[in-house]
């Protein structure tokens, strides 16, 4: 039965063009939303202007259009949401939930990425070029991902107080994504498994905001045949417009939905329509090798 309250999204970062990995996430989020009779929104996660590639936003939207995706409502840009982020950070600073951190990158070396709490009770002035961190509780957060299964993380021991506004004044992804998902009424987050270990931090922020928890589905990462992650140097090529239908079929195959041979000559819209009609998220594999993805 269609769930008309389902709201999902695809949220690309315009630091580059869409590649095959992002196409797999887009296809999964689109089909999951449409198969549920829900809405599907596109949000541009352009929080970091220095890392943005000129022209990437327009190129991403054009690729989505050429690949047959139809989104609901206007594209929301995080670069236009600064006032909303600032208001929440101010509120948390005043209540003492958030605090200023003056630690340099060098000072934090050797802490294994877990903030040791150095500035927690230092009472640093939060004006000026300081990072803002949120206090985390000594608690384990757990959730059941629809594909990856149960995931647990102890925020105090495995993460530590984390940054919600960077020293350079830019807002952190963790904060923006949770505020936007709540503001846009998201019910379902479908995205790449590289963000799986961000989820407990986001559950915690949802709790602080009094926002409803969302369901999660993390699509498989593409790994090397030996199971290792692809190195940072590996970049799959940008998506060519004339390859739309074959690459959509390949993305469907990677998601456990191999299409019948008759679809070989179909248009992108026809491929997506077939995907909506046959979508079954329980068929999505937990991991994907380069070979499965045939890159
Ligand atoms: Zn600090």
Automatic annotation (TrEMBL):
<dbReference type="GO" id="GO:0005524">
    <property type="term" value="F:ATP binding"/>
</dbReference>
<feature type="binding site">
    <location>
        <position position="115"/>
    </location>
    <ligand>
        <name>Zn(2+)</name>
    </ligand>
</feature>
<feature type="binding site">
    <location>
        <position position="173"/>
    </location>
    <ligand>
        <name>L-glutamate</name>
    </ligand>
</feature>
<dbReference type="GO" id="GO:0006424">
    <property type="term" value="P:glutamyl-tRNA aminoacylation"/>
</dbReference>
<dbReference type="InterPro" id="IPR014729">
    <property type="entry name" value="Rossmann-like_a/b/a_fold"/>
</dbReference>
<dbReference type="GO" id="GO:0005829">
    <property type="term" value="C:cytosol"/>
</dbReference>
<feature type="binding site">
    <location>
        <position position="45"/>
    </location>
    <ligand>
        <name>L-glutamate</name>
    </ligand>
</feature>
<feature type="binding site">
    <location>
        <position position="191"/>
    </location>
    <ligand>
        <name>L-glutamate</name>
    </ligand>
</feature>
<dbReference type="GO" id="GO:0006400">
    <property type="term" value="P:tRNA modification"/>
</dbReference>
<feature type="binding site">
    <location>
        <position position="119"/>
    </location>
    <ligand>
        <name>Zn(2+)</name>
    </ligand>
</feature>
<keyword id="KW-0030">Aminoacyl-tRNA synthetase</keyword>
<dbReference type="InterPro" id="IPR020058">
    <property type="entry name" value="Glu/Gln-tRNA-synth_Ib_cat-dom"/>
</dbReference>
<dbReference type="InterPro" id="IPR049940">
    <property type="entry name" value="GluQ/Sye"/>
</dbReference>
<keyword id="KW-0862">Zinc</keyword>
<keyword id="KW-0436">Ligase</keyword>
<keyword id="KW-0547">Nucleotide-binding</keyword>
<keyword id="KW-0648">Protein biosynthesis</keyword>
<dbReference type="Pfam" id="PF00749">
    <property type="entry name" value="tRNA-synt_1c"/>
</dbReference>
<feature type="domain" description="Glutamyl/glutaminyl-tRNA synthetase class Ib catalytic">
    <location>
        <begin position="124"/>
        <end position="232"/>
    </location>
</feature>
<dbReference type="GO" id="GO:0004818">
    <property type="term" value="F:glutamate-tRNA ligase activity"/>
</dbReference>
<feature type="binding site">
    <location>
        <begin position="9"/>
        <end position="13"/>
    </location>
    <ligand>
        <name>L-glutamate</name>
    </ligand>
</feature>
<comment type="similarity">
    <text>Belongs to the class-I aminoacyl-tRNA synthetase family. GluQ subfamily.</text>
</comment>
<feature type="binding site">
    <location>
        <position position="101"/>
    </location>
    <ligand>
        <name>Zn(2+)</name>
    </ligand>
</feature>
<dbReference type="InterPro" id="IPR000924">
    <property type="entry name" value="Glu/Gln-tRNA-synth"/>
</dbReference>
<keyword id="KW-0479">Metal-binding</keyword>
<keyword id="KW-0067">ATP-binding</keyword>
<feature type="binding site">
    <location>
        <position position="232"/>
    </location>
    <ligand>
        <name>ATP</name>
    </ligand>
</feature>
<dbReference type="InterPro" id="IPR022380">
    <property type="entry name" value="Glu-Q_tRNA(Asp)_Synthase"/>
</dbReference>
<feature type="short sequence motif" description="'HIGH' region">
    <location>
        <begin position="12"/>
        <end position="22"/>
    </location>
</feature>
<protein>
    <recommendedName>
        <fullName>Glutamyl-Q tRNA(Asp) synthetase</fullName>
        <ecNumber>6.1.1.-</ecNumber>
    </recommendedName>
</protein>
<feature type="binding site">
    <location>
        <position position="103"/>
    </location>
    <ligand>
        <name>Zn(2+)</name>
    </ligand>
</feature>
<feature type="short sequence motif" description="'KMSKS' region">
    <location>
        <begin position="229"/>
        <end position="233"/>
    </location>
</feature>
<dbReference type="GO" id="GO:0008270">
    <property type="term" value="F:zinc ion binding"/>
</dbReference>
<comment type="function">
    <text>Catalyzes the tRNA-independent activation of glutamate in presence of ATP and the subsequent transfer of glutamate onto a tRNA(Asp). Glutamate is transferred on the 2-amino-5-(4,5-dihydroxy-2-cyclopenten-1-yl) moiety of the queuosine in the wobble position of the QUC anticodon.</text>
</comment>
<feature type="domain" description="Glutamyl/glutaminyl-tRNA synthetase class Ib catalytic">
    <location>
        <begin position="9"/>
        <end position="110"/>
    </location>
</feature>
């Amino acid at each position: 039965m269609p769930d008309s309250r389902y709201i999902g999204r695809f949220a690309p970062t315009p630091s580059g063009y869409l590649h095959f990995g992002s196409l797999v996430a887009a296809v999964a989020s689109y089909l999951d939303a449409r198969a549920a009779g829900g809405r599907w929104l596109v949000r541009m996660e352009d929080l970091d202007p220095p890392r943005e590639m000129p022209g990437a936003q327009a190129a991403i939207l054009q690729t989505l259009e050429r690949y047959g995706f139809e989104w609901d409502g206007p594209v929301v840009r995080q670069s236009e949401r600064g006032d909303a982020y600032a208001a929440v950070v101010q509120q948390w600073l005043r209540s003492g939930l958030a605090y200023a951190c003056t630690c340099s990158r060098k000072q934090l070396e050797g802490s294994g990425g877990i903030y040791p709490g150095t500035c927690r009770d230092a009472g640093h002035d939060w004006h000026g070029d300081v990072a803002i961190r949120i206090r985390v509780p000594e608690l384990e957060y757990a959730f059941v991902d629809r594909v990856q299964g149960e995931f647990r993380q102890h925020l105090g021991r495995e993460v530590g107080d984390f940054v919600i506004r960077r020293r350079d004044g830019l807002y952190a992804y963790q904060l923006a994504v949770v505020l936007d998902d709540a503001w846009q009424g998201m019910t379902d987050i479908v995205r790449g498994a590289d963000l799986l270990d961000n989820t407990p931090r986001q559950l915690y922020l949802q709790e602080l905001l009094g926002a409803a928890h969302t369901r999660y589905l993390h699509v498989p990462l593409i790994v090397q045949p030996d199971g290792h992650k692809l190195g940072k140097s590996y970049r799959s090529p940008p998506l060519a417009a004339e390859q739309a239908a074959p690459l959509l079929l390949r993305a469907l195959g990677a998601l456990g939905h191999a299409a019948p041979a008759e679809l070989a000559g179909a248009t992108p819209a026809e491929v997506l329509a077939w995907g909506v009609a046959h979508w079954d998220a329980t068929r999505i594999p937990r991991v994907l090798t380069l070979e499965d993805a045939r890159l």
